[in-house]
Fold this protein.
Amino acid sequence: MGVIKVHDQEGKLHVLEAVEGWRVMEIIREHGLPIKAECGGACACATCQVEVAPEWAERLHDMREDEEDMLDSLPIVTDYSRLSCQIIYEDELDGLELKLTDASLPDDMDAEAAA
Ligand code: FES
């Protein structure tokens, strides 16, 4: 058991207990933070998009082609964009830091409401 550090869309930091083998998206959702994750982790919606802290970007496993293709289809991505459903939490990721993006806000919350 370790933790991940998640900055929500308002910039507030949440330290979440993480379980090995869970998708990072599932950990975020389980703790009640706003993440749409519409397809439930099938790499088919990109609404679980996050930005990982630069120092973590190289420590994550490489993207599979379907994750890369999905990110390529989005209007706004950065060098640190990932789909959180495609990151499986392992002990080596203890302390992983990332931020939720407005693109992952559930439909009933817009960016203004979260600000
Ligand atoms: S939950 Fe749909 S791509 Fe991650």
Remarks:
- The pocket of FE2/S2 (inorganic) cluster is lined by residues 25, 37-48, 83, 85 (CB under 6 Å).
- The radius of gyration is 13 Å.
- The longest helix spans residues 65-72.
- The helical segments are 24-30, 54-57, 65-72, 111-114.
